[in-house]
TrEMBL record:
This is D-alanine--D-alanine ligase. The active site is at residues 23, 159, 294. The gene is ddl. Its EC number is 6.3.2.4. Binds 2 magnesium or manganese ions per subunit.
Amino acid sequence: MITTMGTRDDLRVLVLAGGLSYERDVSLRSGRRVHDALRSIGMTAELHDADVALLPSLQADPPDAVVIALHGASGEDGSLRGVLDLCGVPYVGPDARAARLAWDKPSAKSMLRDARIPTPDWVALPHDRFSELGAVSVLDRIVSRLGLPLMVKPAQGGSGLGASVVRDAADLPAAMVGCFAYDSTALVERYVPGTIVTVSIIDLGTGPETLPIVEIVPRDGVYDYAARYTAGLTTWHAPARLPDSVAARVSETALAAYKTLGLRDLSRIDVIVTEDGQPHVLGCNVSPGMTETSLLPLAVQAAGVDLGAVLSALVGRAVARQGH
């Protein structure tokens, strides 16, 4: 049962959104919703882009805390968090090291596998190696090793950009080219059919807890960028339509992934559940979307909790962690 503690309303919060990644537009939408949610419960919140004016602003008038609503590298690869650490400004979410690890899907998957947490088999292929070793030979070997269908996606990135399902070997070269448009390394996974779900996890001070699982049903079967952010292309069910025993297994697996990767405050773990009820972790997001079609806010709503109250509690936790 998620409960939010009373938090100080005298804190000034800076919400960072925008940036220069491919996900800028989504980030701005997330930032506005976070900003509005905090202000709706009486907190002082300001919206700021991650641009050249940010550091002077932090130095001249540091906020009590930062909420990072940036998506893509700037908000998720740990670099901005490292800068905030240097400035002594507390922020909501995982620290720089954990964010950097979670951002790189092959590294995160290796840690999950070492912890015996199921994740689809994969190969990570940098563009340079792809060219040097001969595209045809490499792709033939990938199909031979992993089989078909395959999921191709950037090793670093989110929002489904550059991701595609390959069901015919003849379509794999085009999928790789599309992926390399967004990242210099492609992650090629064995495609696992099943029910797509996501588990949002928050820690308001009593340990990490899972919110109601959200089931994702994209109209065309693939949860890509269009399916995520275009009204009518995806149906969500919160809570997910899973048997209680399967839902419990999914939540336990997501919590194990969260702890293995050293995450903190809030994160979202994406999972595929096979027909026999086995969860496989696809990845995690340390800066979950907060738009009107995003999954963490949907899970918060399903839990019967106010988004502003959750964010306020997390801000208070970040401030307390910094010793303010």
